[in-house]
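Q: Could you fold this chain for me?
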Amino acid sequence: MPELPEVETTRKGIQPKVDQQTITAFVIRDGRLRWPVETHLQNTLPGLVVLSVQRRGKYILLNTQKGTLLIHLGMSGNLRVLPTDTEVQKHDHIDIEFANGYLLRLNDPRRFGSVLWHDVSLGPVENHKLLAKLAPEPLTDDFNGAYFYEKTRNRKVAIKTLVMNSHVVVGAGNIYANESLFMSRIHPQTQASLLTQKQCDLLVENIKSVLIAAIKQGGTTLKDFLSPDGKPGYFVQQLKVYGQAGQPCQTCSTPIERIMLNQRATYFCSQCQPFIKPKPPSAQKSR
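A: Sure. Below is the predicted structure, expressed as structure tokens.
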């Protein structure tokens, strides 16, 4: 699934061709995405100007004077910038055409993506039900060690699970959670409440640094992801543990291990990331 670096790469890639451009057509070839694409958009969008191109979590937001189009790439989607006369390929489900001769084309083989409309009459797009409860963005000052330490208190869940919780921080998906935990020398199954303030500070720092590095490399392409210009993400070449099961750790040469945690592939080095068991609760004193 495209994660925050891939979505931010997409946002940055489409912005020069889309920002301040007038929509001339909205084409639905197959609207059976995660939620059905509203057919009225074929009449609502033409004539509107894209006032800004933003991102919130894994959603790309095309803001217009009448509302905002929310685009999610789902499990396997990509959003390409192409000349309007580009031949249609298999799984090209949605086109947004512009007066400058370019279009945005959503290709989504598994159809888990979404294209949703938030009308201006409903208030700010931040009120949308899919955005309203999202946590702070990881690359902002709101996501810091003190904030994250507070979120770990009294939480018995595995730290990797907490890092991937969009109500704690958005966008630190599976690939980048694995990598940042390795960089922080924290076992992914460590109980969140056992982390110290120092560990939380370090983990936040590494989440930010790995996301920034991935964005600079255009994200990570494992299977389907392509940037708007059709290029893969090159951060895959810098992965230290994700997808490296059985390979020697780059730090200590111990083979990287793979387990399933909450149905997600989880990678770690048992030497660099030792598992710390929580202490058993004290036995209650008999009366």
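A (continued): The first strand starts at residue 23 and ends at 28.
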